[in-house]
Amino acid sequence: MVNIQQAGTFKLGNKTINRMGYGAMQLAGSGVFGLPKDKKEAIAVLQAAIESGINHIDTSDFYGPHITNQIIREALHPYTKELALVTKVGTLRNEKGDWLPAFSKPELIQAVHDNLTNLGIEQIEVVNLRAMFDAHGPAEGSIAEPFSVLAELQKEGLINHLGVSNVTANQIEEARSIAPIVCVQNQYNLVHRRDDALIDLLAKEGIAYTPFFPLGGFTPLQSSILEEVAISLNATVMQVALAWLLQRSANILLIPGTSSTKHLQQNLAAAELILPSEAIAKLNNIAVNI
Known about the structure:
alpha/beta; seven-stranded parallel β-sheet; 10 helices; two-stranded antiparallel ribbon
């Protein structure tokens, strides 16, 4: 079995978690909507993740909607005390599966309660507010009002810690002026590196950074170079992309998602993959010069 502890640990709120985690987004049906094709396999993936040492699962009640959290509950409840369940709010799905902003106070309160109910817990370890000013990436706009709603729910004991997602540096500072945050979740990978300076700043503050889409936004040429590096290391492109993130900064927490137990083990193997300096230099170069 893969030893994911080789990737190290990081403090998320008051829990020390393994940096290699799991993202549950793909457990729902096609388009993150409806029931999965193989519910038994979805349950098996979650149980295999825990058996492999994962103690950080990223989810949301708008995956499905509701479906993913219900599967997590069926597969893993009652949860181990080491497990950190991290969710996000700020979005709704309509009957067509569209992703719609849901920033009003009633919508946010309902979203938190939906997560609690479907996960079968009384307190969520971390709730991220996902900004939706632009669904394709961070865009400026005040998050003070919706984040204050989550801060109130935190004071009520429904949320242990807060975080933000799909946000700018200004929005992070705005959130921190209202309540402490323990993590930031944005798109970031070896070619999509807008948050380079932000990651370094958060690392100094002891705040976790959780990147999503580790293979998103690559050009064909960038992908071919990544594949060349992977072949030279006898690894998959996903393993190389994840290993690069792990070596990028100690505050980066990974949440690769899959609905396959086979692919889960392949992804987790990235925790044991050490990229040599020449491979890192080649990978860094494709973001700069292409």
